[in-house]
Amino acid sequence: MNHASPMPKSPRYDRPEISLIEERLEPYGIAVYVGGREGMSNLPLLREHNITTVVNCAVNLDINVVDAPDPAVEEGHLTYGHGAYRYYKLGLVDGAGNAETMMLAGYYQLLGALSQILPDRASYPRRERGNVLVNCRGGRSRSVALVALLLHKQMPDRYPTLQVALDHVRTRRELRPDEWFEAPKPMLVEATRKASAWIDRIDHRDPEQADREPR
């Protein structure tokens, strides 16, 4: 049972900084959260919820996660070194402009982040395998679309269609019903449908499954 304190509200978007979407993602046995820029930057909150991996979906949002700068950084160079958590970046546009394969790439990048085993060497200090946060700027479009795709493909018994998965993520993220038409953006929803069909072909599932889903 999760005894963590209630998640604080974001003053700008009037929703939690992070939202618990799935308590136990199979087969990994970890929790999946969705959030925005406030959540990804709230390190005490992330640690409170045992979030050790962050996947940033936004191309227009960067963050300095380095908490152990490399001593070799020279003057005038940007800081680099080990981060406060394991950090992956997809870099989607929140709307039109993405290559049509980027959502597919994001799905496999997210699976890779969940299953990656790091070497037991000093240069890989963040080997903890805790929960994951998927974020974008507001946590209402790009991250919602990618997590819905993840739930549908990884847990089809619970989320048999993309629509079921999308509605679940929207609800758990506390998106208002009057913003569902643009959260996620329609072209990102369509990108998840294309990605879902491609995943079926890659995994040798029924290639017509996506065409039979209710829209």
What attributes characterize this protein structure?
215 residues, alpha/beta, Protein-Tyrosine Phosphatase, Chain A, 5-stranded mixed beta sheet, 7 helices, 32% helix, Prot-tyrosine_phosphatase-like, Dual specificity phosphatase, catalytic domain, Tyr_Pase_dom
Query: Helix/strand-derived class?
Result: alpha/beta
Strand order within the widest sheet? 1-2-7-3-6
How big a fraction of the residues is strand?
Answer: 15-25%
From the spread of the alpha carbons, the general shape counts as globular
CATH T-level topology: Protein-Tyrosine Phosphatase, Chain A
CATH superfamily: Protein tyrosine phosphatase superfamily
Quote the distance from N terminus to C terminus: 35 Å
Highest-level CATH class: Alpha Beta
Largest sheet: 5 strands, mixed
- In round numbers, the mean pLDDT is 88
Number of strands: 7
Helix content: 25-40%
Number of domains: 1
InterPro entries: Prot-tyrosine_phosphatase-like (IPR029021), Tyr_Pase_dom (IPR000387)
Domain Tyrosine specific protein phosphatases: 108-173
Protein name: Dual specificity phosphatase, catalytic domain
